[in-house]
Each structure stands twice: as structure tokens, then as C-alpha cells.
Fold:
Amino acid sequence: HPVLADVAKEYKRLGLPLPPAHAELVRIN
Amino acid sequence: YDVAYRVPAAKSGGRVRYWEVEYRGVGLREREYVEPAAVEGAESTSDVMRAVAFRDGDYLLAFAVQCQERGRFDLATRLYAQAREEFGEDEKPLTVFENLHLIAWVYWRKQTTERGTDRAQDLRRLLELAEEDPSLRTPSNDRFLRRLERTVAPRKSKPGTVEALIDELTEYWDDPLGFPQKPAERASYWK
Structure:
């Protein structure tokens, strides 16, 4: 299987979105 | 628990916004009406893994990439492994890249009915995808592409004709939650 870094490269090439750089991951109960 | 991205308000008094990975990993979706007291940190990888335990492989794959890009490498690795495990349980498992192409297909197709998007760009993306991955050239996907080509083609209908009214319906929008919208968004329908 491809390494995640290559998957990420392809994900971005396909124009799929990333969260804003300053976003913080949280959990919502 | 659900996991989401908290985006601080752009200016003081502004609204904190929450975005979560859309079902099947097809982009991000804003989560509304979040009670601030219900929000907790997500520093622990195992806490996040527990929160996404029942998610599908595509969701996990997209989330893994996002974590990788945002420097949460440990979490990204765990999510990626979980995604591959989910894919492996499919009757006819696709490769990781095939799954990614399907995610992109659904994402760009979905963009065509979002407000204010550039449908010509959506079409370009979809045509490229279908070119690169022949498994996407199903009869129904091909039909969709032909229809989208006709939607973005220069309009030839004369104002005031039935054809023009039909063309305008491509900009019709109705709020899925039933909130009132700008009159212009529904004008084509009432005409």
C-alpha cells in the first residue's frame, strides 16, 4: 500500500479540501 | 464523541466555527449549534480513535490525510491503518488510490449543487478524473458529465422564452433545512 505522504500528495492534487491551518482538533460530546 | 475542527473567530465578537469531515470523506461540513461546554480537547490519539471507531474507510482516509498535513503524525498513521482495515473488509477491495479517486469524484460532483461554485471548474475536475481512472466511466457517470457539459455551455436561449426559464432553473436553490432564502434564489421556480 502507498505511504501516507504519497496519499496526501494525491489528495491535494485532486483538489480535496484541508481544514484551515489554524484550526484545532476537538471532540464534541 | 464526534471529532471536529474548531476555527477561532476571525475578529472579536465573531463566531467560532466547527467543521467536521463529511460522510465518506467527501470534504468538510460545517457543524452548527455547538454547545461550547460540550467541547473538549483532542490531544490524545486514543481518545480520537475511540471517537471515530464506527466511521467508514473513506472518512478515515480523508481524516488521516488531514492529520498528516497538520502534523498529527501519530494519529494520522493510526487512522490510515484503520482505513485500510475497513477497505479490506469490502467484498471487492479497491486500492487506496481508487478509493481516493471515488472520494474526489463524489466531492466534485457534490460541488455542482453547492451555492456559488464554479461549475466549469467542477466539470474540468470530473473530466480529468474520468480520464485518469477508467473505472469511473460508468454509464451513469458519463450521463452526468454530458448533462454538466450542457449546463455550463454558453446559453443560447432568448430572454423571456420557456428555454430561458429552464436555463435559469440551474441556479434555483432551496434551503434543505427550510430556512427562508433570498427571493432571487427561488424566482426561477415561481416564474
User: Anything to note?
Assistant: DSSP finds one helix and one strand in chain A.
